[in-house]
Amino acid sequence: MHLEGSVRPLVRLVVPVLFEQALALGVGFTDKWLCGRLLEGPEYLAAVGLVAYCIGFMPALFAIAGVPATALVARAVGAGDARTARRATAQALLVGAVVAAVILAAAALGGGRFVRMLGLPSQSSALAIRYLAIVVPALPLMMFTQVGVAALRGAGSMRSGLGVMTVVNLVNASASAALATGFAGLPRLGWSGLAWGTLLGSVAGSAVTMILLFRPGSGLAPRWFDWLPSLAWRRRIVAIGTPAGLDGIANAVCQLWFLSIVNRLGDTAAAAHALGITIESIAFLPGAAFMVAASTLAGQFLGAGDQRRARESVRLAAIACTLLMSAVAVVLYAEAAGFARLFLGRDRQPEVVSQTAELVRIVAFAQPPLALLMVFAGALRGAGQTRLPMAVNLVSLCGVRLPLAMFLGWDGVVLPGGLGSLPAAGLGVRGAWYAMAADLFLRGLAMTLLFRWSNWSRPVR
Questions:
Q1: How confident is the model at residue 67 (pLDDT cuts 50, 70, 90)?
Q2: Which residues contact 29 (CB under 8 A, 6 or more apart)?
Q3: Most exposed among 184, 192, 229, 447, judged by the fewest C-beta atoms under 10 Å?
Q4: Cα distance between residue 423 and residue 405, in whole Å
């Protein structure tokens, strides 16, 4: 492997995104820490876990606009075509606005019913519905932030995302804590205060994104004529973004289905699951950073017509990410209980602490294949090849994780069509996480084979 010319661009892209993702992680940490420390009972942690899934995957639906924004802007920048980069940014935002409107309408018509379908006990479900009712109106702002930052990343501006998430995290953490506790004479809103803090963070993040995207020096500030709807551009964005959007939708549905499997095990299991996911996200940080870097480098090198450096940079990102995530996994395995007590305190909810530690130790072994999965999927998407990652995710989630989670987690599985039931392992939430680890191993292997053997670096028309 010829490393000259590949290491420096990789480091330049990874470091800002790594800090950005750490700040994004702080948003989830804040809500769960406040729930664990200020609000009594596992139902609050169970509810905040469900909310985190919903908020985390609603923006994932904006991949139909965000993924093309990164891929098309990166190729235009690599080819030195600033006019096309601006046009791609504006048209991606228009597509994102349509997607946001559809999601808002769906949430208004059936949001509460959907939350109740996810299996939490009635009190926890009511808490989640109250939180989402406050936050969901900010979805258009979340879309603008996600697609705008995606375009900036395609142009190689990784510090922009860092700046946005710094503001989001600071506003969310301070506002949530102040409104939940009634600090400095503010109303003491408790659980609702966490939701208002999240909303204010989204408002601040979209404002910063607008400043960064439309400033004269960004190179992406669209002119008025760039906003004129174009059928040709819409087709191009949809051709690249639809598989990624469907991937996001399918992934969101499967992950929420997986959550419903866990929720039916009770509030304690759901609370442990919520904390386990949050703690595991520490190891997830390098994967997210290297995934974005691989996507940007693949797109820019392919735009410049250099397939060798595109593959070389992705391969280097995969090696570095795997080593780093494996090292973090060792720490998580050794200190799993300590991380759980960080959220709940030393003597509070000991059963939740114990179950959370078990879950973190299970998923620690799956971090190396998760690293390969994230980096290689990011590279393929950055190259505009979005169908292959979608197929891998859909087949493994539906064919492995979900059925295996039911058979390992529940005491019995009711068959559809009145065909009776089958006995199951009854391992509880541990069984569901064994299924998750098996899914990550299989998807990591499949994505590695796709990177090695598929012609993913061919031009996208």
A1: confident
A2: 278
A3: 184
A4: 13
Distance, in Å, from the CA atom of 119 to the CA atom of 379, rounded to the nearest integer, reads 36
Q: Left, alpha or beta for 190 (phi > 0: left; psi -120 to 50: alpha)?
A: left
- Tokens 């004129």: give the residue: 228
57 to 54, 64, 139, 323, 369: CA distances (angstroms): 5, 13, 11, 27, 22
The CA-CA-CA angle for residues 357, 362, 364, to 5°, reads: 95
pLDDT for 2 equals 46
Kindly report the number of other CB atoms within 10 A of residue 431's CB atom: 23
pLDDT (tens digit per residue) in 158-186: 677 778 878 888 898 889 889 988 887 88
- Per the CB < 8 A criterion, the answer to whether 377 and 447 are in contact is yes
Check residue 121 and report its DSSP letter.
-
Could you report how far apart the first and last alpha carbons of the chain are, in Å? Answer: 29
Q: Is 229 exposed, middle or buried (0-12, 13-18, 19+ CB in 10 A)?
A: exposed
The mean predicted confidence, pLDDT, of the chain is 84
Residue 306 burial by CB count (10 A; 0-12/13-18/19+): exposed, middle or buried? middle
Give exposure, 50-62, as e/b (b: 16+ Cβ within 10 Å).
bbbbbbebbbbbb
Beta bridge partners of 423: 412
How far apart are alpha carbons 376 and 240 in whole angstroms?
17
Q: Choose among 248, 282, 264, 259: nearest CA to 24.
A: 282
Domain ranges of the chain: 7-453
Q: Tens of pLDDT along 41-66?
A: 778 888 888 888 787 776 677 888 88
| Closest to 269 measured CA to CA, from 27, 50, 8, 423 | 50
Which of 250, 244, 246 has its CA nearest to residue 394? Answer: 250
Tell me what pLDDT residue 456 has. 66
pLDDT tens-digit profile of 241-288? 877 777 777 777 888 889 899 988 988 898 899 889 888 888 888 888
